[in-house]
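User: Structure please.
Assistant: Input sequence and predicted structure:
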Amino acid sequence: MYRDKCRARFQGMVFLFLATAVITMPAVVMAAEKNQAPPSTPVQTAPVREDLVSQQISVIATTEAFRSSTVAAEVSGRVETLHVREGDFVKKGAPLASLGNTDTELRLKGAVAGNEAIKARLVLAEKELERVRSLKTTNSVAVKQYDEAYYNAMSLTRELERNEAEIERLNYELVQKTVLAPFAGFIIQEHTQVGQWIPVGGSIATLMDLSSILVNADLPEINAVQLHPGNGVSVVINSLSSRPFSADIEAVMPQGNPVSRTFPVRLKIPNATYRIKSGMEAIATFELGRKITAILVPKDAIVPAGPDNLVYRVDQGKAIPVPVTISGYYGNDAAVKGDLAPGQPVVTRGNERLRPGQPVHGID
C-alpha cells in the first residue's frame, strides 16, 4: 500500500511538470519573438542636395480644351440619323448626323437628263456651224446666218457648262448630307434630334478636342514681364496627381487687367491619354530669372500623405519621416522645405510602404 502511494505521488509530480512546461514554453517563444528586431527593408537612396535654382512663382490656373467647335450643316435637310451621343469620342471624319437626301437625288437625276439633252442639241448646233462656215468661205451664205449659227453653238456650250456645274453642286450637296467630325474629340453637347429640320448652317453638336490642354493663368505684372517662351513651367493638377506636368508657354497676352494688374498667360500641355479634362483647377509654377539657394531631393523621394507630403530620411539605419513643403520642381528634382540637410540620404525607391522607424538598408 505504501508503494502504491509513492507511485501515485510520483505520477502526479510528472503530470504537474509536463503541464507547467506546456504553459510556459509558448510564453517563452512569444517573448523571444517580441524581442526579435523586425527585418531590414531594402531601399534605394539618394543624397539631399543644395543648389542655386531659378526663383519660381505659383498661381491658381484653369484647364481648357485645345479647341472646341459647334459643328454645323452646310446644307439643309431633315435629320434621319444622329450617330453620336453626349460623351462619345469620335475620330476625325466620323459621321455625326445624316440628313435626308431624296429631294437632292431627284434634282440630280433631272440635271443629268437635262445634260444629255443639251449635249445632243450642241452636237447639232456645231454641225450647223461647220456647214455655215464652209459656205461662208465662198460667200454662199449671209453673215447674219453665220452669226446665228455661231452664237447658238456658243450659247449651248455655256448652258452645258452651267448644267455640269449644277450636277457638281448637287453631288457635293449629297456628300454634305452626312455631317462629319472636322477633328477628333468628345461630343459635349447635342443640338438636334432625329426628325428635326436643319437649315443651312444649323448646329449639329459641339465637339471638344482634348489632345492638348490649354492652361490659363493670371500672373502679376512684375512677373509677367519676366516670362519668355523658353521659360520652364510645371503644372500640378491635384485631383489627378501631385506630380507635375511639363508645360510650354503659348502666349503672354498683351492686354492685362488694369484693376488687378495681372496679365493672362496661356500654357499648353500634351494630353494624349485624355486624362486631363477641361475646367480643372491647376497650380502653374513659373521659373523666373533670379537665382536662389534651395534644398533639392529627387521627385521619387516625395511620398503623398493625404493633403501633405513627406520624405523618408535614413538615420542610423532607420527610416525617419520628414514632413516637407514643395516650393518648386527642377527637372527630376523638387525644391523642398523641411528638416533636411545637404548630404543626408533619403529613400527614393521602396518608400511607399515604409513605417516610421522601420530598419532599412541601401541597395544599388
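The two ends are 78 Å apart (CA to CA).
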